[in-house]
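Report of the visiting student (M.T.), summer placement. My assignment was to run the structure pipeline on a short list of targets and document each run. The first record concerns Tetratricopeptide repeat protein.
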Amino acid sequence: MIEIHDKLGTLDELLVIIDDLLLDERYDYNELLVQKGNILSIQGKDKIAMKCFDKVLQDDSTNLWAYYFKCYVLNKSDDLSNFDKLFSMVKSQSPDEYYIWLLIGVLFSRNDRFDDALYCIDESINRYDGQEDSWLYKGLIFYEMGKYDEALSAIDIALKINPKDSYLYLTKSVILNAMEKYDGAIFYSNKCLELDKNNVLCLYNLSLSLYNQNKFDESLKYCESALKIDPNYCLSLNLYAEILRHKKKV
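After the run finished, the structure tokens were exported:
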């Protein structure tokens, strides 16, 4: 696949390269066909992509990558019927690649299969514990489950791996807001804004922290900043209305 990445341009150009390599017996045909299906899916050509994945699976029914991408495409139309088989496949094959575990875990988490998602994320971490995304998603899953202390622990590990990732500070701030620890939430929102001053979600989250501390003037300032960047952001619009309502009362 080195030749592909060296020549990487547009997706259409990449498809042409893959089609050429599919004719070359030196390369793994099924691997290339999975890559082709993935690109077609990214382009929104899901029916053609599915033909690629199905062709691979007809040749090798145990091809985990092909089955993952097939489930991913089916999930776009809310078809979860293959998830149990995907979970069974990844457990039985127990691949060494941390990334396939991570991707499957993320797919499960987006469909509220949190226990299965955590299992896969932990297997990803067992294979490579230096990947911040694995710890980030572990934290996000715990957050969705309402296990805020566990979520914070995972995010803290991710921050040790990459202390320059603004999204990690934002995530920690969101969790602290949920725990009603508003001073901490404000601190980490500001850490995020130091790295990404125009982060709309962070500006909203900071405004929400201040609102919950009844600091309506400060809250209004950050909410207005968020709306200047994105006037249609629903959360900011709703909070803006609430702030104005409370300011009229005081």
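The chain has 15 helices and no strands. Residues 1-71 form a domain with the Serine Threonine Protein Phosphatase 5, Tetratricopeptide repeat fold (CATH 1.25.40). I thank the supervising group for their guidance throughout the placement.
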